Amino acid sequence: MEGLIVGASNYVTILMAAMYTYWNFRCFGVDEERRDRYLKRQNRMMFLIHFLSFSVMFLKTGDERLFPFYGAQAAFLWCFLALYGKCYRSRCKLLANNMCFLLSVGFIILTRLSFDKAIRQFGITVCSAVAAWLIPFVIRRMWQLSRMAWVYAAVGLGLLAAVYVAGDASYGAQLSLKLGEVAVQPSEFVKITFVFFVSAMFYKSTDRRQIIVTSAVAALHVVVLVLSKDLGSGLIFFVTYVFMVFVATSDWIYLVLGFAGGCGASVAAWKLFAHVQARVIAWRDPWADIDNRGYQITQSLFAIGTGSWFGLGLYQGMPGKIPVVEKDFVLAAVSEEMGALFAMCVLFICLGCFIQFMMVACEMEAMFYKLVALGLGVEYIVQVFLTAGGVTKFIPSTGVTLPLISYGGSSVLCTFILFSVVQGLYMLKREEEEDYEAGY
After folding, report:
1. Which of 177, 184, 189, 375 has the maximal Cβ count within 10 Å?
2. For residue 52, which of 104, 120, 127, 130 has the smallest C-alpha distance?
3. Domain check: are 294 and 264 in the same one?
């Protein structure tokens, strides 16, 4: 009977996730009344998925700690949506909904993988929400942000240099700094300063001299990351810069040069770094060394294949066999136990967030704000692509996390900041439109 309930719950959860995803894309291009109706349905689906998943976990484990933990999570999600709406009436409701949906999926899968890590992640999430609360207010009222280009560059390069000099090594790369008992990954925060630096520079000018100077400083960011062997972050920075310079100049030559440069850099990384060679070899034929280099990716593929379209059900699979499953390979755990269809819904919601970022970028008239929204959106979707591609063997593993779902405090806080900045830009545009209609 228990197995029947767990199995049926998976079908119901997938159906609700599909409905949530459907309403996400229905929100584009409809009037405000219908959009609000779809958004309310989304919220109901999100809370039902969250409740049903925790009910199944309690049924499987009998762990009474799940009750208060579920209650705390549900209360946080409800309070976040309600208070955000109270403080920021002109917010993008769809973006807030999708952020909470992705957080709820992260809460579910991390609770299943490691209760202790889930508690820590929840605490970090609450603190991140509080820390990022005022960012939309600041974005809407501080035009001076466009005048601080070299401050962003100095802060970003300083943090990356500190990691290179004194960072802790993890899986062949220097990624984090230890502050007492807390490990911080500065490259996550430098993603924000990097986009603001490039946006501020191109807002001033897009003449050849400015492009050369900006490219040199951007390249220095990537070089320091490469020296630290954090090639996943280096790739995100590189791709983001290429698209930002293309949009700022409308010159296709930069895309061509960027593609050529990226190919050359990939070959150089293969030649220079042993851990890159190991990842590429494991990607090309993981079955040849299944007990060593290919172990992680083969376990990921086994998990996805075993879960198939509809999943085995929570606590029915063996995601713990995948190394660092709660970070780089969390999508494989979602796919194994909640189903490939559910995992696809998660990715479609990530795509929906990216589309919303691009819509905000297109609506902004000031080049600074346009480039900020574009750059943050490209960083977000490239990170999602690298994570999903690594998990499914589409590309070699890069060691980056799935935003808002993977375990990692720096990633969660950085993503909160990213979404909050875009929310601030969205609200700025809505308020400008309201002022215009009112005749101000």
Report:
1. 375
2. 104
3. no
